[in-house]
Design brief:
Elements (H helix, E strand, L loop, with lengths): L1 H12 L12 E10 L2 E15 L6 E8 L2 E8 L5 E8 L1 E2 L19 E2 L2
Antiparallel strand pairs: 1-2, 1-5, 2-3, 3-4, 6-7
């Protein structure tokens, strides 16, 4: 009984408009930012280095290079602050979590593109 109620509530929280993307893909995540009384959307473009969780708890980490410094952000997939997820290009990687990108820079950090 209790488990059924939890499943119903979580099913209503799951977003349906999330595109299919995997580790190694380059994506643009549009995030809603509220400052004072104003709301704006900020884009964060980078490579997905991990996906984790399931259902409502699903999240992913995106890494980008900003002025030579690696920046990583973790986003919950079903968060209301995530306005839109857009896949820029599909990447071909052999692993599910590509943390080895943290140690690499320049040409060695490139990911092969799937056409």
């Amino acid at each position: 009984m209790n488990n059924k109620l939890v499943n119903e509530i979580t099913a209503s929280q799951i977003k349906k408009d999330v595109p299919e993307f995997n580790t190694g893909d380059t994506i643009i995540v549009s995030v809603r930012i509220i400052e004072n009384n104003k709301e704006r959307i900020q884009a964060f473009q980078g490579v997905v280095i991990q996906r984790r969780g399931s259902g409502v708890n699903k999240s992913f980490t995106v890494r980008k290079m900003s002025s030579g410094i690696g920046v990583e952000r973790t986003f919950p997939v079903n968060s209301p602050t995530v306005a839109k997820i857009e896949v820029v290009k599909k990447g071909k990687v052999r692993r599910n979590k590509i943390f080895y990108l943290r140690k690499r820079a320049g040409k060695s950090a490139r990911i092969k593109e799937v056409l």
